[in-house]
């Protein structure tokens, strides 16, 4: 096929497309249908955006409330460690911990795990020949995370190799 034949086919195709578009633009039904489809798409995007923003606001509100509850949860842990959590107060503490777990609050930090500055806050530093890498040897205050967000890093004593 020669170049002039390809150009004539292209010119003819372009002319046909222009003609079809002009006919569609002059038909009010086609114009109104296009407008309606665009409006529906805009509304659908708006609903998705509002729902996403609403979910984000909910997550932020839950995180703010749980963050304020962390000192209370620490007090409950200390009371449990000292054997002072008994009777009806123990039932209330258990319910509170179940509720926070249901909302997605997760307690983390165990002695002996490797130190990670992304999730740990080092408060005490020591060296030892017994460890091969930086290790959280004592958990001074547990850390809490909500889903993938750290509400409070675990406060730890870190031991590094000599």
Automatic annotation (TrEMBL):
SUPFAM superfamilies: Coiled-coil domain of nucleotide exchange factor GrpE, Head domain of nucleotide exchange factor GrpE
Keywords (A to Z) from UniProt: Chaperone, Coiled coil, Cytoplasm, Stress response
Any Pfam family matching the protein: GrpE
GO cellular component terms, A-Z: cytoplasm
GO biological process: protein folding
Stated family: Belongs to the GrpE family.
Protein name as it appears in the record: Unannotated protein
Organism of provenance: freshwater metagenome
């Amino acid at each position: 096929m020669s170049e002039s034949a390809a150009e004539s086919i292209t010119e003819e195709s372009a002319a046909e497309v222009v003609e079809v578009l002009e006919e569609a633009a002059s038909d009010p039904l086609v114009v109104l249908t296009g407008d309606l489809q665009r409006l529906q798409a805009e509304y659908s995007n708006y609903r998705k955006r509002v729902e996403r923003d609403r979910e984000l606001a909910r997550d932020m509100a839950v995180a703010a409330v749980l963050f304020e509850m962390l000192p209370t949860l620490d007090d409950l842990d200390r009371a449990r460690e000292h054997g002072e959590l008994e009777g009806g107060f123990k039932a209330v503490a258990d319910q509170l911990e179940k509720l926070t777990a249901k909302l997605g609050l997760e307690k983390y930090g165990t002695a002996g795990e490797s130190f990670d500055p992304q999730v740990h806050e080092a408060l005490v530093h020591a060296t030892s020949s017994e460890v091969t890498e930086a290790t959280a040897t004592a958990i001074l205050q547990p850390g809490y995370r909500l889903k993938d967000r750290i509400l409070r890093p675990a406060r730890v004593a870190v031991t590094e190799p000599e």
